[in-house]
Amino acid sequence: MTQNNLLEVRGVRKVYGTLTALDGVDLAVKQSSFHGLIGPNGSGKSTLLKCIAGAEAPTEGRVTFLGRQITSATPAERARAGMSLKFQITSIVPNLSVYDNLLLALQADQPMAALLFSRTRGAMHEDTMAQLARFHLDDRPDELAGALSHGQQQWLEIAMALSLSPRLLLLDEPTAGMSPQERRITGDLLGPIREQCSLLIVEHDLGFIKDICDTLTVLDQGQVVDSGPTREVQESEKVREAYLSHA
């Protein structure tokens, strides 16, 4: 594994019966970088993200994180190693308050005894409010999470995914269903996390992803079409052909 790489994926294949969703994918995410994963519908982007996060097991290939092979590690083991995933569909608890959703995420690695005796709630109050402020939710801590707008629910879940200070954050189409204004705010909110962790993000909105990502990898039919610096990849003829073939 290259020293500067936080994550390496090598030769990953994923086969479902007669369907090959991924066919020998290589990917590397560097330390302190924002890496975009793009491609036409059905290209294998979300499947690759699931193989990295442990939600799916690759049929072949290996995944290495922080120098350790994690191909067969469970999602919980990957989380403990410093990987955090937010899927496209939110997993907030709609009948709990905004505050309590985030508090539960912050408490995830606390000892059971501390939780049973409610020792962590007061100790984590400042951290909880600071994280809510970071994601423009500090004026709504007592509202039910289900009452938030779609964009605000996505921001809450990103805040929850960042709560345990991961080394790598995986986001699957976080701006899907957002208004243009919400997408712009989301980009502004994600920018500062570069100081905390690297980001691997699956997106359909090329305008959004090119503004925040250093590197792009393009998938088509389960294979890497191109990968490299964002400006070079977005101007690649191979990438244009991949998108035009699905138009």
Outline of the structure:
By secondary structure, this protein is of the alpha/beta class. 36% of the residues lie in helices and 26% in strands.
Please provide a written account of the structure.
There is one protein chain. The chain has 247 residues and is of the alpha/beta class. It has 2 domains: 1-82 and 167-247, P-loop containing nucleotide triphosphate hydrolases (Rossmann fold, 3-Layer(aba) Sandwich), CATH 3.40.50.300; 92-165, no CATH class. It is 36% helix and 26% strand. The protein has helices at 45-53, 75-81, 98-106, 112-116, 119-123, 125-134, 150-161, 180-190, 206-212, 230-234, 237-244; strands at 5-16, 19-30, 34-38, 60-65, 68-69, 83-86, 168-172, 198-202, 215-220, 223-229. It has a 6-stranded mixed sheet with strand order 6-7-8-3-9-10, sandwiched between helices. The protein has a 4-stranded antiparallel sheet with strand order 2-1-4-5, with helices on one face. The longest helix has 12 residues, at 150-161. The radius of gyration is 18 Å and the shape is globular. The N and C termini lie far apart (37 Å). 38% of the residues are buried.
Strand order of the largest sheet: 6-7-8-3-9-10
Number of helices: 11
Distance N to C terminus? 37 Å
Q: Mind describing the biggest β-sheet?
A: 6 strands, mixed
CATH class label of the largest domain: Alpha Beta
Instruction: Please tell me the total number of domains.
Output: 2
Give the full name of the CATH homologous superfamily of the largest domain.
Answer: P-loop containing nucleotide triphosphate hydrolases
Principal-axes geometry comes out as globular
Helix content: 25-40%
